Amino acid sequence: MASSQIKPLFASLLLGIANIHYTCKESVSKLQARPETSSNKKKMRSDMEKIQKRGQNLLEKASKAMCGLLQCAKAERLIRALDEKNDEDGDDESKVSMQKQSITYRLSHLSPSLLNQQRSSSSRDEIPIGDTVREAVSAFCRVCGGSKRLFAVMIRHLRTLQAGQRLAASASLSSVISYVLKSTASEKISDAWTDVSTPLLRSLKDDVESGVREYAVMGIGTLMELLRTPEMTQGQDSQTLDVVLSVMHSMNDSSNRVQRAALDALRKTLPVVSTKTIRPHISAVCANSRSALSKTPSRTRRSALDLWKLLFETLSEEKCVRDSAVKILPCVIVHLRGRFRDTRVAAMSCLFELLKVLECGKASNVLSKYVTSSELTDFDGFLLDFLPEIFKFNASNTAQMFLIECHRMMESREDPDLEWAPIMANAAILAASVILKVKKEIQQQMNIGQICDALVDLLRADSSSSGGGSSSSSKEKNRRSDRGSSYTRSRAAQALGLLASIRK
């Protein structure tokens, strides 16, 4: 097989596999969404089995074709090219052999990995088909090259009526874009990036499949990151502004995954955009970033914290950024003790930069005293030492703002993964600590009764809202919910105890 034929065949097979997977999954989801009755129960199960069996058969055939293509490519061209590269680099024979084995393994397991997703489509931990496509394209480009050819093929499929193909095309573009630009001389990247970004920006408007929008905004983030400096986009303010506005719009997307991708993309975009270009839109950036800190998925909040750190580092002279520092301070604090370590570390880094903006050196010293290996050692003790330093200036307004934010964070919400439960618990302790550490005349101005009511509501939290059912997944969900509620109740009780000591 000629090497020129390998790339379009690879693209076609990858698009086909992704579309089969997507179509089968969507068909099963539609059947599952139908009301189940005793009369149609048996037929629905039969229809789902037929869809899955037919999809499985098609996936197996497409996967065999993919494996055959990759083996052909590897035998005739890939290994030879690899040998030539390593001869030039002077690598020893054992390293060449190891690289061959790694590539062989990656390519031979590409199609089965796509296939396995069909079998685990109901799993919460399922790897999205688009992520697998990205890995496949990345592996292929590293070994085969031809990124520009793949890019051209995938662009043509961004407007197809088949959502599965659009999803695969968008995922492919988000992955291949780095290889396209890396193959371009650095001085020419700024000339090429507009043409490259246009199809991705167009895909952000896909109103059917959120995955298309997610991978499109990921590709935009990669593109802007590769530009590196504002000098490389000099004279292209209108184009960079279009990118910023499009990414900001995606921050309000209905999909959590798109929101998170947009936050990450904006973090990569801002260093490339001139201050002059972004200044009229900083207020909107701050508003969207504050809103993201209230999203239930922890990964979305982590991305928002990373973005805020960048804003504090690069745009601290802007009034909106300085004003936002005080407003988001309570939210950043409660994330110092969260469910996931990477979110806690992001909150810690963000808080240090935030305190620099507020010029609270003593508060920063207190924070440092309680930090070991980027982790807070004693959350409750830290609050009691930290808050007095924060309240040294404009104590009344700052304390009132803290209580308002704490009350908002204590409000119940749908949280199937219990990612918000620690935030509610931390907000309870923070609210009580704020009231404890301000002067009595300020306490008298506070709506302490409202905080007490919110704490009582937390005490009543249980797993009754988690839904019934006797399946193992439902039982596990109920157990997790109960554990989260128990922790929240215990912290609410502790907060009420602190408030009781004040009344005495």
Write the layout of secondary structure elements.
Elements: H1 3-33, H2 41-89, H3 93-108, H4 110-119, H5 129-144, H6 147-156, H7 163-182, H8 186-203, H9 210-227, H10 237-250, H11 256-269, H12 275-278, H13 282-292, H14 298-314, H15 319-334, H16 341-358, H17 361-369, E1 371-372, E2 375-376, H18 379-390, H19 395-410, H20 421-437, H21 440-443, H22 448-459, H23 472-503
Antiparallel strand pairs: 1-2
Helix pairs in contact: 1-2, 1-4, 1-5, 1-7, 2-3, 2-4, 4-5, 5-7, 6-7, 7-8, 7-9, 8-9, 9-11, 10-11, 11-14, 13-14, 13-15, 14-16, 15-16, 15-19, 17-18, 18-20, 19-20, 19-22, 20-22, 20-23, 22-23
Portion in helices: over 70%
Q: Largest beta sheet, briefly?
A: 2 strands, antiparallel
Shape: globular
Overall residue-averaged pLDDT value:
79
- Rg result: 27 Å
Fraction in beta strands: under 5%
By helix and strand content, what is the structural category? mainly alpha
* Annotation, overall tally of beta strands: 2
Low-confidence stretches: 75-93, 95-125, 463-475
Number of H/I helices: 23
Strand arrangement in the largest pleated sheet: 1-2
Topology pattern, helix = H, strand = E? HHHHHHHHHHHHHHHHHEEHHHHHH
* N/C terminus separation: 86 Å
